Amino acid sequence: MTIPRPAAVVVLAAGEGTRMRSATPKVLHEIGGRSLVGHVLTTARALSPQRLAVVVRHERAAVTDHVLTLDPEVLIVDQDDVPGTGRAVQVALEALDGAGELTGSVVVLAGDVPLLDVGTISQLLVAHHADVNAVTVLTTVVADPTGYGRVLREAGTGDVLAVVEERDADHVQRAVDEINTSVYVFDADVLRRALTRLDRSNAQGELYLTDVLALARADGGHVRALRTEDVLSVEGVNDRVQLARLGAELNRRTVEDWMRAGVTVVDPATTWVDVDVDLAADVTLLPGTQLHGATSVATGARIGPDTTLTNVEVGEGATIVRTHGSDAVIGAGASVGPFAYLRPGTILGERGKIGTFVETKNATIGRGSKVPHLSYVGDAEIGVETNIGAASVTVNYDGVHKHRTVIGSYARTGADNMFVAPVQVGDGAYTGAGSVIRRDVPAGALAVSQGSQRNVEGWVERSRPGTPAAEASARARSAGSSDPGTTHETENDR
Ligand code: UD1
Ligand code: MG
């Protein structure tokens, strides 16, 4: 089935969105990692229209910037202070005709209906052309039609007579539960002629786009409706309750699509996947996992439980447990977490490890290298097959500037090391536990920085008399223990 290519798509986004109670324009609120208008633009583009226009007015600058960032080819059209959807389409058509009069079909979409899919609009276009309609409107039946325009049909043919707005409707009309979704295909000539005849003699004093339907019919055109059963796909966002509901529904659909594509999702209800995320077959997502932005996960990888990744590339067979990460690359077979924090610029090589209570930032950790426990690695480069001892820190900040730590390949650094950057540790070098590495360590050297240990015999009993430590010390001495680290409890103790 070939989908007729529309001459233009017009996206209406001039409305105010007062019920969001937000400093952010309504159409810029996000679900699934994409703005509401971003969803509509993606769908609009998929129809390959010759021209694409977005009508703006409220919060013009913010909406315009956002739309042009997403799609620089969009024609931005300003609505003036004449209110109504009819006015919005009037100014859009004028602007579109400015580049040569449109012929063919014009699709109108609302900027706040994020779940509308390409398939449904394609069906609308196919029906419009097959039936040679003047107007084809997408409708649906809802349990509570309050607030919507009601679709009045001719008995027998089922053709649309008119759409009447709630506030202009009589009791009989209000009882109709088939509503206008504000998604239409118009023949461009029909639309142009009808738009000139709109007036504001209605309850809201607006120019209604819906009046075009009755006018087109009066001119002898066919006005028909396509009814969708998928009510949520045509629901507009008016407040944050709807935003959350449609966000959850979008996620449900996204996660379901990934499961059908071969991804195991143990708990779909607590797994959130943005629309731009890419998952391979045989990825496993455990409960409480959120994947955002341009995150991609290769086959065999296991993510979660309780992991949030934003713009992270995860390699084949990697394991990421209880981790928070962004703008990072995790190599194939690598292991991360539990309780890891990957900040931007983290690159972990194949089979590498970023372990428990480890934070990384701007750090390249080579193939097979491990940072297993309680460490901070920032502004650093670690070669291949190196092991970093527990509780180590790259001391990258001197209070004014950030400096780099470079550690070579096959190195073994001791526990509790401070690498005071800028500093370099050569290939195969070792460092002793508790070292503060302030100077470069040559390849193959052992660096030991701490002073040698001094035991001050009897210090506790002299300086801390009467404390439990002093008493334990006295008992140990009188027992004549040869092992100074062991206490010898007797039956009388405690
Ligand atoms: C409109 C329809 C109604 C339909 C309902 C579906 C009209 C007269 N009524 O109602 O039949 O059931 O949508 O949600 O068309 N907009 C502009 N400029 C304006 C006014 C609105 O661009 O001057 C945009 C809004 O940003 C929104 C869309 O048009 O994206 C719909 O406007 P909205 O006010 O939500 O719909 P209603 O007029 O209430
Ligand atoms: Mg309105």
Cofactors and ligands present? uridine-diphosphate-N-acetylglucosamine, magnesium ion
Number of strands: 35
What is the assembly state of the chains in this entry? single chain
Mean pLDDT over the residues: 96
Radius of gyration: 33 Å
Classify the beta-strand content into a percent band.
25-35%
Largest sheet: 17 strands, parallel
Uncertain runs: 486-494
Structural class by SSE content = alpha/beta
Q: Report how far the terminal alpha carbons are from each other.
A: 88 Å
Number of helices: 10
Principal-axes geometry comes out as elongated
The helical percent reads: 10-25%
Layout of strands and helices, then pairs:
Blueprint: E1 8-13, E2 30-31, E3 34-35, H1 36-46, E4 51-56, H2 60-70, E5 75-78, H3 85-98, E6 105-110, H4 118-130, E7 135-141, E8 150-153, E9 160-164, H5 171-174, E10 178-187, H6 188-195, H7 211-218, E11 223-228, H8 240-260, E12 264-265, E13 272-273, E14 278-279, E15 284-285, E16 289-292, E17 296-297, E18 302-303, E19 307-314, E20 319-320, E21 323-330, E22 335-336, E23 340-342, E24 346-348, E25 353-365, E26 370-382, E27 387-388, E28 393-395, E29 405-407, E30 412-413, E31 418-420, E32 423-425, E33 430-431, E34 436-437, E35 446-447, H9 459-463, H10 468-478
Parallel strand pairs: 1-4, 1-6, 4-5, 7-11, 12-15, 13-16, 14-17, 15-18, 16-19, 17-19, 18-20, 19-21, 20-22, 21-23, 21-24, 22-25, 23-25, 24-25, 25-26, 26-29, 27-30, 28-31, 29-32, 31-34, 33-35
Antiparallel strand pairs: 2-3, 6-10, 7-10, 8-9
Protein described:
The chain has 494 residues and is of the alpha/beta class. It has a 17-stranded parallel sheet that branches. Strands 5-4-1-6-10-7-11 form a 7-stranded mixed sheet, with helices on both faces. It has a 3-stranded parallel sheet with strand order 28-31-34, with no helix packed on it. Helix 6 (188-195) crosses helix 7 (211-218). The protein is elongated and about 110 Å long. The chain starts with 7 loop residues before the first strand and ends in a 16-residue tail after the last helix. The relative contact order is 0.07. The site of uridine-diphosphate-N-acetylglucosamine has 26 residues, from strand 1, helix 3 and strand 10.
